[in-house]
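Chapter review. Work through the record for ABC transporter substrate-binding protein before attempting the end-of-chapter questions.
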Amino acid sequence: MLKKIFISIMSVGIVLTAAGCTVAKDTKSNNGKINVVASINSVRDFAQKVGGDKVNVTLLVPEGTEPHDFDPKPKDLEKLANADLFVYSGAGMEDWVDSVKSAVGSSEKLTILDASKNVDLIKSDGKTDPHIWLSLKEAKNQSKSILDELIKLDSKDKSYFEQNYNNFAKELDDLYNSNKSRFASLANKDFVTGHEAFGYLCRDFGLTQKSVEDMFAEGEPTPKKQATLVKFCRDNNIKTIFMETLASPKVSETLANEVNAKVEKIYTLESKEDGLDYVQAMKKNLDKIYDSLKK
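Structure tokens for ABC transporter substrate-binding protein:
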């Protein structure tokens, strides 16, 4: 992966130099709007919610592409060189980001924001869980970091950005509060997924995920792990196995077939799914998880 990125960086050097010479020095360079490039869909949603009609937000990782597998091309680096703000989710989600940052570091007009800088990270077996945005609390923290950067870039619209952030934060708080009480009332706290992506959501609501694959969806599950999950599902009468769009459906389907359960889609929000924005998708996730836990 890194070798590919370095080759792309070398091939695009001339393009970046040219772009750096032609971009205007003022922050707002696209019809009076701040040009924001977001690494993944969730970050794009946060930037759009906070920035409103004062920003032009574009996505770096194409829809339907697993962010870990993304291989930046010269056109991607050129897009960044012409941006005012590059926001990435952080915590290792975009493992190619250091190489990309070094390629565009000479651009005087580009601000780069690691949106995980104020997040309470989850670490397990020496690895950091990168799926920050699947916590409503941490989504608010990431959005606050974006707010702070937008104000630095455009201080005269400070009150506008703050109002947008406050409105979005209220949406997140309302959704969190309405779900906190109903999850607390359940005796059953365990749900089953194909991919271990929901650690931050679980922390928000006191839940536990049992997953076929680890948080990076690497490799096939061992027979021992598969057998353990089959026993868990049978012992606890699990009737729903959740499947993530960008993960292999096979792992969820195989487990579901063994325990006579249904497979149901759950959103990881790395890409835009079913035309839903962040709050809409998270509401559906929480409703589906709650329904699967009711006995």
